[in-house]
Design brief:
By secondary structure, the chain is mainly alpha-helical. 37% of the residues lie in helices and 6% in strands. It has one domain. It has a 3-stranded mixed sheet with strand order 1-3-2, with helices on one face.
Length: 222
């Protein structure tokens, strides 16, 4: 049996509708016209969008974000993705940890930021960036791949810019050498594992929050 173009589109539309209904049955509606389907790039309004996880139906206690946004340079982060997320959440009545925008704009680049939720209905957000500061400062770092310093202008493996002039990680660069891929991989591995005590701490607090909420709901049901 051969599928016509129209029948194939109908099957694709039904499958997409099924997925959307499983996620948010009341918030999504796919048009009946199989010839038209609107698609929106999430980066148009917010380059790092956490709104879906802030909805009440998700009951999120802890959100871990990996911010791959393009910043001005390695010494100047404006943290606009955080600010945009906070403002958008406020406009739409969604819970978002309290942040000090004026202070955040002038905050020095950091590998890891914590935005702790208030009460039991607001999630805590752990925000990781591509900041290469503490990783770059490690002396005599031994990479996980064979490394020849001559391919990195004679610099150590962990000494490389992510955003500044000379970077190998521009937004529209879609192909990377093994070296450049491994540098970014080991950078993020370091940024996450070096913060593991904080991650475990906030996971514990999130579990406690979830238990309190379930106990409160159980009391209301009795």
């Amino acid at each position: 049996m051969f599928l016509t173009e129209r029948s194939l589109k109908n099957k694709q539309q039904k499958y997409l509708q099924k997925l959307l209904n499983e996620l948010e049955p009341s918030d999504h509606d796919v048009p009946d016209d199989p010839k038209k389907l609107s698609v929106c790039d999430a980066g148009i309004v917010q380059n790092v969008n956490v709104e879906a996880f802030l909805r009440k139906s998700r009951i999120s206690d802890l959100i871990i974000v990996f911010d791959m946004n393009l910043y001005k340079n390695d010494k100047d982060f404006d943290y606009m993705p955080v600010i945009q997320s906070a403002l958008h959440a406020s406009k739409n009545g969604l819970p978002f940890p309290k942040i000090q925008i004026r202070r955040l704009v002038h905050e020095a680049p950091a590998e890891f930021l914590t935005f702790e939720g208030y009460g039991d209905d607001c999630p805590t957000i752990l925000w990781f960036t591509l900041c290469n500061k503490s990783f770059k400062a490690i002396e005599n770092y031994e990479p996980k791949i064979p490394y020849d310093a001559t391919v990195n202008d004679g610099r150590p493996f962990n000494d490389f810019p992510v955003f500044s002039d000379g970077t190998n990680f521009e937004t529209f660069k879609l192909e990377y050498s093994e070296l450049h891929f491994q540098q970014l991989h080991e950078l993020m591995y370091h940024n996450v594992t070096s913060c593991m005590p904080y991650i475990k701490h906030h996971i514990g607090k999130a579990v406690e929050r979830k238990i309190r909420r379930e106990e409160h709901e159980a009391q209301n049901d009795t």
